[in-house]
Amino acid sequence: MAERLSLTQNIHSHSSLMASSLGSAAVSSRFLSSAAATKLSFSSSAASSRSFSVASSSSYSSLRCLRFSPLISQRRSSVNATNGGYSTAATTKCAASDPDQLKNAREDIKELLKTKFCHPIFVRLGWHDAGTYNKNIEEWPQRGGANGSLRFEVELKHAANAGLVNALNLIQAIKEKYAGVTYADLFQLASATAIEEAGGPKIPMKYGRVDVSGPEQCPEEGRLPAAGPPSPAEHLREVFYRMGLNDKEIVALSGAHTLGRSRPERSGWGKPETKYTKAGPGAPGGQSWTVQWLKFDNSYFKDIKERKDEDLLVLPTDAVLFDDPSFKVYAEKYAEDQEAFFKDYAEAHAKLSNLGAKFDPPEGIVVDGPTPEKFVAAKYSSGKRELSEAMKQKIRAEYEAVGGSPDKPLQSNYFLNIMIVIAVLALLTSLAGN
After folding, report:
1. Residue 408 CA to chain centroid, in angstroms?
2. Handedness of CA 271, 272, 277, 282 (dihedral sign)
């Protein structure tokens, strides 16, 4: 269905919502054949228990493939795993994702969003995989972050990840179709695509994330934020500063609460039903932060600021955005200027999606990058005089010597130098001809 996905707030509750509507869609996926209901709140501290079975298929004795850690800590929920149902294709060596498969997987995700309305839970899926990052730990994967660990049962059973099993059930068919895409990339691809398809900004993503290989590499529970801590502002800063994020990014990411809803039976927050959620889409019920809870815009900030509609949810971690002096500067700005919100959100989301990731290749893979310009030596002719073939070859040799090729653009730090070289050669040729 649709659930709330904010990094700072209890998004796990949203995912829970999605869990009910998504359960009918793909509970039969190999990922988890029997999914009871794990708690999904991103920030709430209450969680229901969910049992599911996971099949292990690697050299690791208990490779339960279903990892996803919540950004918000909640009560622990119990998860019982057996050897049936969900076959995980965990491998001992992680490879970079294939660019063409990434593009095709994105199209499949778009089609899934149109029929399952799973935007909120997919956003939460990407956030919870990345949100366990600890900037004070250098080693990978101990530092946590976007590494696909959420697919394993040991992390899925974290209270804050309740309900994310439903997101995994939905996306598993796409993973099986595109074996050349890592789980870590697929989670982040689904998250960014969900934002964009809900009307949000284009996220400047890169891919090539390496997956962890076994459940022993999952982070410990408790790295994600809670919805109702005693000191909301202090709690948010403690969690997000640990990730290397600042106050502006905390507020911008909180704006993702414009999507989704919270179910009290799963997160401990919200009403069982409101006039905005009683008809779905998906499984009816829950309480949303906004009226149009499947549309990404800046209405979250407007509604939190006004707090006039009792049918709209306001968590302690929501309210503090307008109570804390530093947070308020950005919250007020985003309530008035959606363009500014979109810009800052896109940057914060991209940064979050890279936290703790190990990329192969190291620079990552840009799926939507500009098409490299072909090398055409004739473009560097001088006036009416065409360069000789010898000069064209010389220019080409210089071009390739500093990293360029007919199909590969120069690295930016060489561009100015090569242009100067070309200009000088063209000038000398012209003078020689004269």
Report:
1. 29
2. positive
DSSP line for 198-236? TT-PPP---B-BPPP-SGGGSPPS--S--SS-SSHHHHH
> β-strands 65-66, 151-152: how paired?
antiparallel
Which DSSP helix (H) or strand (E) runs through 359? none
Cα R_g (the chain), whole angstroms = 24
pLDDT in tens, 347-383: 999 999 999 999 999 999 999 866 445 555 555 555 5
User: Are 42 and 13 contacting, i.e. CB atoms less than 8 angstroms apart?
Assistant: yes
DSSP β-ladder status, 65-66 and 261-262:
unpaired
- In the numeric block, which tokens belong to residue 182? 């890592």
Residue 76 CA to residue 80 CA, distance in Å, equals 13
- Per DSSP, the residues of 34-96 read S-------SS-S---------B--SSSTT--EE----SS----------SSS-B----SS--P
426: which residues sit within 8 A by CB, 6+ positions away? 380, 381, 382, 387
Tens-digit pLDDT profile for residues 47-98:
333 333 333 333 333 333 333 333 333 333 333 333 333 334 443 344 479 9
Residue in 12, 119, 128, 158 annotated catalytic: 128
Torsion over CA of 249, 43, 259 and 314, rounded to 10 degrees? -100
**Token output for 231:** 């000191």
> CA 162 to CA 37: how far, in whole Å?
7
Give kind and range of the element (H or E) at residue 391.
helix 389-401
At residue 86's C-alpha, the angle toward residues 81 and 92, to 5°, is: 95
Return d(Cα 161, Cα 37) in angstroms, integer: 10
Asked about 128 being catalytic, the answer comes back as yes
For residues 25-39, average pLDDT: 36
- Where helices occur in 84-219 by DSSP H, the ranges are 99-116, 119-130, 153-156, 164-177, 183-197
